Amino acid sequence: MSKFSDITGSALERAMELAGHAGDSLRHGGSNAADWLKAGAAIGAMKTGGRAVSRVARRNPTATIAVAAVGLGLIGYAVYRKNKRDNAALEAKSQQIAQRRRAQTTVDETSDIGSDA
Known about the structure:
mainly alpha
């Protein structure tokens, strides 16, 4: 006697329907699984890289300090260039506004004289 022979027909149909629904969910959830796989691989690579960097840092502390100093210098230079570029754009904008104001405030000299013309 089969284990399924004791299950009524409607219960067996419902169980088969649920199994089919679960299979469809797994089939359509493949893109989500790929995202999880990529995230897991990225985390694994980050952990492995972190271990390698920590080993190198422990064995060569002076080289680590030198690399950190160069990195800070590059970051500082990038910030300096960005501020310089932003200030130049701000200065150009203020010059444009000043030129517009000068153009608007030019006074017609004949209107100052009055009506004796």
